[in-house]
Amino acid sequence: MPAKLSSATLVGLNVSLVEVEVDIDKKSVIHDVDIVGLGDTAVKESKKRIKSALKNSGFDFPHGKIVVNLAPADLKKEGSLLDLPMAMGILQACGHLNECDFLCVGELSLDGHIRKVKGVLTILAQLSKEGFSKPIVVPKENETEAKMVKNLKVFCFEHIKELVEFMNGLVKYEPVKFEGLPPFSYDEDVDFADVKGQTLAKRALEVAAAGAHNVLMKGSPGAGKTMLARRICTILPPLSDEEALEVLTIYSAVGQADIKKLSRPFRAPHHTASTVAIIGGGNDARPGEISLAHNGVLFLDEFPEFRRDVIEALRQPLEEGFVTVARAKTTVTYPSRFMLVAAMNPCPCGNYGDPKAVCNCSPYDIVRYNKKVSGPILDRIDILVQLPRLEPEEYFSKNSSEKSERIRERVIKAREIQKRRYREIGISTNSQLNAKLIKRFVQLDEKTEELLKLTVSRYNLSARSIDKILKVARTIADLEGSEALNYKHVAEAIQYKLQQE
Ligand SMILES: Nc1ncnc2c1ncn2[C@@H]1O[C@H](COP(=O)(O)OP(=O)(O)O)[C@@H](O)[C@H]1O
Ligand SMILES: [Mg+2]
């Protein structure tokens, strides 16, 4: 009878169960290990690791022909996490291990140590959802992730020898204790109060945070754009458990879930980053910055300096909240619902429009620079705000600014109102309203409609621009706790739009 064990494999964030079957033909004159079942290079290489790991752990490697079958045969298996189940299968087939039914994942080092693998939390979260009841074994180095998932019986081991002794009933180990997700915390080192002046920009960011609107800050160098962007997470609500788990499963898939404290993701890739690094993909179809920023903030500083194809490729994920990356024969989907915060200078030298500085860019340079962020991508940015250069009086002013915590309280209240209002239609923020929903949830009184009409005809605004004004106005009213939209709300929203024209 062939030995049988369970394991799992990960493609993107999709977990599939894998049955590992091992059969040994001891009479065969050929001594070899044959791994069948669509394994990638790492899987094919594992036979060398397994051979050394078993020998160096004091087990004789069986003679004869060994066939390892990874079922289902039509599913691609990836990575080194199948090392451990294959080794355990071989030990079971040659009688070193009692027959026992469990699921394991882990990479083996040549001396038999069980090494950390990517995606343990992703796998465990999925198994927990499915009500998986068999014992599960994961590497000791992945213990932090194992403690985050409830309703599973997970054991952590450092060495293959310990695992065999445990499975043979020679020693006792306890399953890991469920501890829950790491506690959420805010970065105490940064605060909105550190930023002097820039009242308008701060207000715009508060509105953006309240409705999860994408925002573009434009202003001369040194005005505080980068500084403000780095503080946005301090005014966003804490992650809900569901959001936190989504974030952690993505982090687990790239091997970064081993954390003690959790905060909202803030990703700030450099403008020289490749499309694959930002959008995701490559040989192993890994998630990009936009997915690592899921449920958090993607900050693109010096926005026009980003490669054009990167800016173009942001459109679909911004619209849909997920991204599909292509890879050989299949595609992988990752969530990517992030708040885009972009910053740019008004021109290449940064002085255009500054009354106290001389701009030495040609008109052509200025137009070309600004054109890079025009059209489709600008359509997805609801709020634009200009930051003037900081005046010396403002910089040296002794007046203290409002702390992040106070701003955050207002943002949280506004978000709760939105959540309640949209509970039944499956969205949670005003930024997700489409044209149809805007008609349903944003109604104007006569005077306000008149103001909007006037602005539209004066500035020749498109229907899309009107929608954006209405969405942002909805958020401004929500910040005030007002269900009805008034003149003031719309006037402020218009101001964030007109700066784009
Ligand atoms: N509004 C401000 N309040 C306090 N310090 C500021 C402000 N704006 C700029 N600074 C100082 O100038 C430095 C550069 O600001 P930065 O945010 O990088 O500007 P920008 O990104 O607009 O070019 C900051 O690290 C900070 O020390
Ligand atoms: Mg900057």
From TrEMBL:
Similarity remark: Belongs to the Mg-chelatase subunits D/I family. ComM subfamily.
Name recorded for this polypeptide: Fis family transcriptional regulator
Molecular function per GO: ATP binding; DNA binding
InterPro entries in alphabetical order: AAA+_ATPase, CHLI-like, MCM_dom, Mg_chelat-rel, Mg_chelat-rel_C, Mg_chelatse_chII-like_cat_dom, P-loop_NTPase, Ribosomal_Su5_D2-typ_SF
Xref: SUPFAM superfamilies: P-loop containing nucleoside triphosphate hydrolases, Ribosomal protein S5 domain 2-like
Keyword ATP-binding tagged: yes
Taxonomic lineage: Bacteria, Thermotogati, Thermotogota, Thermotogae, Thermotogales
Domain MCM C-terminal AAA(+) ATPase stretches: 288-384
Record keyword Glycosyltransferase present: no
PROSITE patterns membership: MCM_2
UniProt keyword terms in alphabetical order: ATP-binding, Nucleotide-binding
Pfam families given in the database record: ChlI, Mg_chelatase, Mg_chelatase_C
Domain of life of the source: Bacteria
